[in-house]
Structure to design on (204 residues):
């Protein structure tokens, strides 16, 4: 495993590389607002991607690298993420298709930056459709802006809501809540299968 700091407009971010023997593509995964890259669903998704022949970079946002738990504003998160994408796209993943993803807040960042960052697909773990108990504050618009194949894996008891299926958007519901730790093996299977499908057309 390799780890490196990446300069961004809002301080250094950290990227942790998990290599696959095959290297068909690269998946960048971001963490949730108050959590880190060791979250159980991120660990399961990383294992699945490596098994599917995809390199993974787990990306720690600058506010977490600096030791803060309160997340930065969305525009800062997005700018830092895109700076990491640009750096790793040259340094580690030159010429590879890039997939964006993350859990909760990290999934929102992946969606918002998918067009500018030229992502070929997006993986959302526990996408927070709205704050708990506040369905009127919907974030579905962030999902609607994604123009590439998207997989959303959601817990059946997630208080942050459940997105609807749509064009290019698959939704898989697993047992558990927002943490997605109740069915790590189910998440692993879903991600392996999805990656195989979305990458196949790129290899023709």
């Amino acid at each position: 495993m390799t780890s490196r700091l990446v300069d961004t407009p809002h301080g250094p971010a950290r990227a942790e590389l998990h290599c696959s023997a095959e290297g068909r593509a690269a998946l960048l995964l971001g963490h949730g607002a108050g959590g880190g890259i060791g979250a159980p669903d991120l660990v399961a998704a990383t294992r699945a991607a490596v098994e599917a022949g995809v390199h993974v970079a787990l990306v720690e946002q600058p506010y977490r690298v600096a030791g803060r738990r309160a997340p930065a504003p969305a525009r800062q998160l997005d700018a830092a993420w895109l700076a990491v994408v640009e750096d790793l796209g040259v340094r580690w993943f030159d010429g590879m298709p890039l997939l964006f993803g993350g859990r909760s807040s990290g999934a929102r960042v992946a969606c918002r930056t998918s067009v500018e960052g030229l992502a070929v697909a997006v993986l959302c773990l526990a996408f927070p459709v709205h704050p708990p108990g506040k369905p009127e504050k919907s974030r579905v618009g962030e999902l609607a802006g994604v123009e590439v194949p998207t997989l959303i894996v959601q817990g059946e008891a997630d208080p942050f809501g459940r997105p609807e299926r749509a064009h290019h958007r698959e939704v898989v519901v697993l047992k558990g809540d927002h943490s997605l730790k109740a069915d790590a093996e189910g998440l692993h299977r879903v991600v392996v299968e999805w990656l195989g499908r979305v990458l196949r057309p790129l290899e023709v």
In short: The mean pLDDT is 95. The beta strands are 2-6, 13-18, 25-30, 54-60, 98-103, 121-125, 150-155, 169-174. The radius of gyration is 15 Å. The helical segments are 40-51, 62-65, 74-91, 105-113, 140-144, 184-199.
